[in-house]
Amino acid sequence: MTTHENGSAGLGGHHQHLGGGDARALKITAWLTGIYFVVELAIGIWTGSVSVLSDAMHTFSAVGGIVLAIIASRIAARPADTTNTFGRRRAEIIGALLNGFFLLGMAALVIFMGSMRLQDPKELETGPMLGAAIGGLSVEFVSLYLLWSGQKGNLNIRGAYWHVLQTFVGSLIIIVAAVVIQFTDFLEIDPILGIAFGLVLLYASWGIIKQALTVLMETVPDEIDVSNVRNQLRQIPGVKNVHHIHAWSLTTGKNNFSTHVLVDSDIASQKVLEQSYEVIEAHGGIGFATVQVENEYVDLAGSEDIDITGEHRVSETQDQSGASAAHSREDHGPRPDA
Ligand SMILES: [Zn+2]
Description:
Layout: H1 3-11, H2 20-47, H3 50-77, H4 91-119, H5 126-153, H6 155-184, H7 189-216, H8 226-234, E1 239-251, E2 254-263, H9 269-283, E3 288-294, H10 316-332
The protein binds zinc ion.
């Protein structure tokens, strides 16, 4: 239930400015969780418990996620300039992709370790396992408390919050494994729960990777319906057609939109432009738009493959030269020396 949230929030909505208190809460959480990771990893290696090790892996990714959130929000906050005219907001997408692949690798490792151990179950020291779980629960309680108020209004913090909430579940799993082993000698419980948690990590990593790739592939953001915007733009008086329509994200929650609007030559283009922006604003979810109002097609030759409307036309002069070239080829056939 948490993985989807984790996936989406892992990328963060860094357009929301981090307040001083929120930044401090993130920093303290990163330190607490980081120190706890070292302790938990040591206990995991010492006892050989798969459930402790898998929780340690997740703890590490939680720290990574929080540190990435801090670094990415700093890089992303730098203003746009002549070298990066869209700013550097995709830093957080690259960070999220790295985090996702890292989590994927750890999930594979944990599942592999668990399946090896299932074939050869091992007697575990339940005392240190319980120690690791209780240490984890206390760190996670403090972190959840610190992040509680911030996560309500800021997606960036919510990502960290869900990370911590997942390691909280991981700690509960360790307690279950330790208690079951203590009272029943059912040793397989440790690798079984470890693998189960590994599968959760796998799912979480997929969510993060998928969302990062969506932005990098310039997929139309979920919140934008280009057909709907196009239809509404076509309703504006004087508009003949709407082509070269594009929508993409710089980063999660920062969406751009651009389009060409062909209008009757006797219509006031400024009026059409203003009405177009009213449509775009009313649609919502678009932070930046470019609208090209044209009386005649001026589209660049070679860009027709990125026009989803099929209405792309090069300018009159280009069109004619293109047509005459095609004719001459038809008339004379392929040149023998070509
Ligand atoms: Zn055009």
